[in-house]
């Protein structure tokens, strides 16, 4: 048996592990679970409810108020010089109605609350976008670390087989101790990488579990061979930046906060103006409740009440200047956020565009590196290649697989962040990505063909060296 046959079982096992089971946790399921369990999103939802109640509170200041009051007392008066005691039972009840007529600062405060409610709505939408981004990133990170862990395990297994081959060749005098030492060093490096990769995969999966609020006992649905993303439309970075600076949630929230800050300046200045209220009240009094000598009365009062600050020790002026300074700060905050959004949009656009080109290049590189491994194994059998050549080829092939997976997930995240930059990241985008993760029977059959192809390509007894894998796309 040739030495290349020793690694056939290894490649076959590794390929079999790449076949996904039919039942797997996909991205959409993870997103639905995160909506119900993610603490950050639930906190944003609760904050939205609290913000909505502010409108009722601000409106209540402008509406009439009716206050009812009553009192019943028992008094005992002792006259020491007359040696007598007087007991009385006075009672009173009143109803007072107050309707603000002119309170400009209260009207301004009501306008502020309306803007604040709009901020609450935008904040909740931004939190939903943030949840999508975090779920996609956590899911992709879990898939990537699992891929790295699997490739690292394959590297360790093939390195172990290569070490055994080198040792046997050395034992029969076909190679030198240098080959054995190189193979041994490569095996232990692969072993260390596999340990680290497994730990990273466990940590990434735990992060996803924390987000969805439950343990993940089933495999994650991975990318299919039909995974393809399109170029961003419009195909112009400047247009994406321009749109993001106008439609990004953080920018819109900052602009509304600026409006509130400007209204605060107006409200503070209006505190100097007079306030006019309509007041009506009726009061019932009894000097001796339910007694013979009881004297009852009723007082009705209707009128206007005017109030205006005359001297406040400089309080209002200081409050106005403080509000003006905060408004200036809000202007600069809007500029700062627009700059940050522009930078992140450019970065996301470049990540999405360059990612597509990187994927195409790495797909070709993966084909070449796989062919290089096969060629070096054959060359090693024929004595045309040495052990280190095979090890280097296997190392390059493994790293190319990792780089391709990294490029795929980075491209997905770049597209997600690009849509989030313009406030257009929705549930449909999760569904769109999820279609490339579905464990359909067609996908499984395709993966089985790919697995068989890998075994055939590494089988020296095979008469065919070319296997065409039909895409499901």
Shape category: elongated
Question: Any idea of the CATH topology?
Answer: Outer membrane efflux proteins (OEP)
- pLDDT averaged over residues: 83
Query: For the report, how would you describe the main beta sheet?
Result: 4 strands, antiparallel
**What is the share of helical residues?**
55-70%
What number of domains?
1
* Helix/strand order, N-terminal first: HHHEEEEHHHHEEHHHH
CATH architecture annotation name: Up-down Bundle
Q: Give the count of helical stretches.
A: 11
Polypeptide structure, described:
InterPro entries: OMP_efflux (IPR003423), T1SS_OMP_TolC (IPR010130), TolC-like (IPR051906). This is Outer membrane protein. Residues 450-473 have a biased composition (Polar residues). There is one protein chain. With 473 residues, the chain is of the alpha+beta class. The protein has one domain (3-457): Outer membrane efflux proteins (OEP), CATH 1.20.1600. 66% of the residues lie in helices and 11% in strands. The strands form two sheets. A four-stranded antiparallel sheet has the order 1-4-5-6. Strands 2-3 form a two-stranded antiparallel sheet. Strand 2 and strand 3 form a beta hairpin. Helix 1 packs antiparallel against helix 4 and helix 7 (249-270) runs antiparallel to helix 8.
């Amino acid at each position: 048996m040739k030495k290349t046959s020793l690694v056939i079982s290894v490649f076959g096992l590794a390929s079999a592990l790449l076949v996904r089971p039919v039942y797997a946790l996909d991205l959409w399921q993870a997103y639905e679970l995160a909506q119900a369990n993610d603490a950050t999103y639930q906190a944003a939802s609760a904050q939205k409810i609290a913000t909505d109640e502010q409108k009722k509170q601000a409106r209540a200041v402008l509406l009439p108020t009716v206050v009812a009051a009553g009192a019943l007392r028992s008094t005992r008066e002792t006259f020491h010089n007359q040696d007598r005691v007087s007991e009385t039972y006075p009672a009173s009840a009143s109803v007072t109605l107050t309707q603000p007529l002119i309170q400009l600062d209260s009207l301004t405060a009501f306008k502020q609350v309306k803007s604040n409610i709009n901020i609450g709505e935008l904040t909740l939408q931004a939190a939903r976008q943030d949840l999508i981004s975090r779920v996609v990133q956590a899911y992709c990170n879990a898939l990537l670390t699992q891929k790295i862990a699997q490739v690292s395990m394959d590297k360790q297994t093939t390195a172990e087989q290569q070490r055994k081959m080198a040792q046997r060749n050395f034992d029969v005098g076909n190679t030198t101790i240098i080959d054995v030492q190189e193979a041994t060093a490569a095996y232990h490096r692969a072993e260390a990488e596999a340990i680290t990769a497994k730990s990273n995969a466990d940590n990434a999966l735990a992060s996803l579990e924390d987000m969805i609020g439950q343990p993940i006992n089933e495999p994650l649905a991975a990318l299919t061979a039909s995974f393809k993303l399109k170029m961003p439309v419009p195909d112009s970075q400047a247009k994406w930046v321009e749109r993001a600076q106008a439609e990004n949630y953080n920018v819109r929230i900052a602009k509304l906060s600026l409006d509130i800050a400007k209204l605060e300046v107006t409200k503070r200045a209006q505190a100097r103006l007079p306030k006019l209220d309509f007041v009506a009240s009726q009061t019932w009094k009894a000097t001796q409740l339910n007694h013979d000598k009881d004297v009852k009365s009723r007082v009705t009062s209707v009128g206007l009440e005017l109030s205006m600050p005359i001297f406040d020790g400089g309080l209002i002026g200081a409050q106005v200047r403080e509000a003006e300074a905060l408004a200036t700060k809000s202007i600069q905050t809007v500029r700062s956020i627009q700059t940050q959004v522009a930078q992140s949009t450019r970065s996301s656009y470049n990540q999405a565009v360059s990612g597509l080109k990187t994927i195409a290049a790495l797909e070709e590189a993966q084909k070449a590196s796989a062919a290089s491994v096969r060629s070096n194994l054959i060359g090693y059998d024929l004595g045309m290649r040495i052990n280190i050549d095979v090890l280097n080829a296997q190392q390059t092939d493994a790293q190319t697989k990792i780089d391709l997976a990294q490029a795929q997930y980075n491209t997905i995240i770049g597209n997600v962040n690009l849509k989030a930059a313009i406030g257009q990241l929705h549930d449909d985008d999760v569904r769109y990505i999820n279609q490339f993760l579905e464990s359909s029977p067609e996908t499984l059959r395709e993966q089985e063909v790919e697995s068989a192809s890998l075994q055939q390509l590494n089988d020296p007894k095979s008469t065919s060296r070319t296997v065409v894998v039909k895409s499901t796309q």
